[in-house]
Description:
This protein has helices spanning 9-14, 16-29, 36-49, 60-70, 87-95, 114-120, 140-147, 202-211, 233-264, 293-302, 332-340, 352-368, and strands spanning 53-57, 78-82, 99-103, 125-128, 153-157, 165-166, 169-170, 177-181, 195-199, 286-289, 341-344.
Amino acid sequence: MIVPFLSLDSIHTSIKKEVLSAIEQVYNANDFILGEKLTAFEEQYAKATGVNYCVGVGNGLDALKIALLALDINKGDEVIIPANTFFATLQAVVLVGAKPILVDVNQKDGLIDIDLLKKSITSKTKAILPVHMYGNVADVLSILKLIKGKEIYLIEDNAQAHLATLKNQFTGSFGHINATSFYPGKNLGALGDGGAITTNSKELADKCKAIRNYGSSEKYYYDVLGENSRLDNLQAAVLSVKLKYLPEWTLERKKIAAIYAKELLGIGDISMFEIENTVGHVYHLFTILTEHRDQLSAFLKEKNIQTIVHYPVPIHLQKSVANLGYKKGDFPVSEKIANSILSLPLFIGLTNKEQMYVVAQIKLFFSVNNLLHA
Ligand SMILES: *Cc1c(COP(=O)(O)O)cnc(C)c1O
């Protein structure tokens, strides 16, 4: 049996007709940029996630950058981010010229540590940018309490958490402005790059619409400097089709995750992140933590099971940001996660047989290596 980490075969086969017809409509209309399909998707996504406005952009990194630019965050400003995230979160802050202030995460869930965050707020803090890692929900309610009455913005990085909820409210709707990605492998994925900004503020939405389009709100008038980063109509049309199925797919992810969680409990030295908010997690990834990560991953590979490490090098130790002056040991929890985390196969269409094969091989690894009670 071969079990890939991710396969889009199942969903792309099941919705093929609908997607091809949506693509054909764009093709026939010759309406490719900033057209009807984009507006329709933006309205649908806003409605589906409980916000007033959605602005489609080229990708998740641009969504983060444009959100920061819309808040006028630049040189001299500090933006607090978790040390455990995908590199784009950090890169967006650096690219707009602001200073990223990294904060370690909780051991129990890998999400930004609120006590450490509190200590990192200074007079220069302009925004706090938590990340809903793996589809699990960062404690945005505590962050909102912390910044109440202060001139500090909340920006959610919702790239891994489409339709995740906290107290029945969708992530990506708590912040003043929020960013997400529709990279093909995300829970809601385009057939190429894509991303979006969500907000309840008309002013911020309008600003983002200008920035994504050369800084222009009226054709050929450029009041601010912007970029060229628009979600194109082909991708928007595809995303509109997929969005209809996302609630169903999200339930399937949760079911698969629940089986892993049950089966792997107490196996070897495996630990799993605690999920306080069980209903809200959308399991973009199912991760386990083990001291024997590299051996386990190699063992599974031999058994034709593909796993991935998200992510092997913590963001503060990446070469391109060496000038920030962070060093090994600065964020021990994030570093420990990077050394021990492993993401298991989880995708729509993963069969129970395949999943139980993965589980069996993990159990075999720990019994063969006599680490079962390590
Ligand atoms: C994927 C991702 C991004 C970047 O999205 P792209 O569309 O690939 O640019 C940003 N933040 C997080 C947490 C992500 O997982």
